[in-house]
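User: Can you fold this complex?
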Amino acid sequence: MNAMNHSEFRQDIAPGDTLLAVDNVTLRFGGVKAITDVSFDIRKGEVRAIIGPNGAGKTSMLNVINGFYHPQEGRITYRGQTRSKMRPHVAASQGIARTFQNVALFKGMTTLDNIMVGRTLKMRTPFFWHLFRHGPAMREEIEHRKFVEEIIDFLEIEHIRKVPVGKLPYGLQKRVELGRALAMQPELLLLDEPMAGMNLEEKEDMCRFILDTKEQYGTTIALIEHDMGVVMDLSDRVVVLEYGQKIADGTPDEVKKNQKVIDAYLGVAH
Amino acid sequence: MDLLFKIFIDPFLQMGAMPDLLVQTLWEGLVSGVLYALIALGFVLIFKASGVFNFAQGIMVVFAGLTLVGLHEKGVPAWLAVLLTLGVMLALAVAVERVVLRPLVNQPDIILFMATFGLTYVLIGIGEFIFGGEPKQMITEELGLPRGAIDVAMLGGRVTFQKIDIAAAVIASIMIAALAVFFQYTRIGRALRAVADSHKAALSVGISLNQIWAIVWFAAGIVALITGIMWGARSDVSFALQTIALKALPVLILGGFTSIPGAIVGGLIIGIGEKLAEFYWGPLVGGGIENWIAYVIALGFLMVRPQGLFGDKIIERI
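Assistant: Here's the predicted assembly.
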């Protein structure tokens, strides 16, 4: 994985420092409040989990972070820069990659092409050369192809390189989606329920890939997950949402003992 | 028995008896085939990038042609008029992206399709307002396109090639080849296919929908201009030309909505098939089959290969 070691990220944020801060964010759809006054931070190099019952606003939170939604109130600060409105493709160009709850792949394209698309932003050759698919454009294509093959190795999906992803079983599609996100060499990787609908073996594989990603590339990861076993094993810190509000924030152990969290998950007698 | 003979045997006997006529028919089929391919190409470009059948492609052809001729009438030199028309098509692409497509991101395809209907009538309105509804002559000579014909003696007869047809075939072929390579094998081509497949996923990897759509509509605008010049040179530039958009449908069904090579092969099959059918089988039903035979061929194809000859395989996991 040589190509990945000399990554292009500016190294001005040391591990453990705040990479992204969410301050008092409120998101409304008409009269419905999806998120109310939520604040938390994501530190560089950690695995940060966002958990909560269904409808707690977890996915909305992720959509706010990568620019699909724009909150009515509050601030998002990424790498020390506060932003108001940001489009998803700008978020991507600043190093935020993500996967989706219900897999968003390019179904008609092969695994290889899907992951190659993840390299789009890294390709720099001017438009002109692409017209002829020659010279610099060709060299660049080969270079990126090499990188993509490394990711394919890493995720152990060599056997499905040329298969249109629409034909693949769900577990593998999720892996391809992770591959596409990794191809962007993200600084911050957002995973929306990476283990949903997987069997035990697939879950274990996915856990391993997530941890390896963190170890090998120093990628910061924020993930939403329902499997509590997985969350508690994987993550360094956990933030818990319920009805769009933050009810707890801390290490897995702290969160597990929090009475509000226990109530939210087990229900409480009134 | 006599009818069967007339359908299955007689036409081929005629072809054998007068090979020069066959060559002439094939040539004319080829030329209209290339032009169909050109129109179909405009559709394919936009379909690939947004999954939308752009009903406005036909009127874009007319609009580009009218702008070119209109500018020339105002005294602008021909080459400058071409450049200015390209500028107008670019402005149109950007405007369509801004006003029509951007507010409709992530909407179902049918909504976008309806939006292109609206666009058609807006363009008709603007076109008639600025240039009037009268048919205009294409400025063939000023653009340096050749006129006249070449007669070639061959196979015991004479075959006539219109020079403008030769030029049309050559220019269209170059255009098609360049676009095919560009959109099939480059980063932007891949981004395009990605956008067509899923807006959401494309955004998440950093592809700017706005930019891609503007590029694609501009490319379709360029194709429209060239189509306008070529078709305009063969007849005239009028609003009636927009119905050639409907001729592109059977071509697309044959070739596949998502395939540039498909548009070419489909165009050629329809063009040549039409002319052969008209000339050799037409007399059986009193002629005039050129207008509908294309749709019959397309219908037959739909039953066998709904995705077309080269279209993306339709994949659905249940």
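Confidence is low (pLDDT under 50) at residues 1-10 of chain A. The beta strands of chain A are 18-29, 32-43, 47-51, 73-78, 81-83, 96-99, 188-192, 220-224, 237-242, 245-250.
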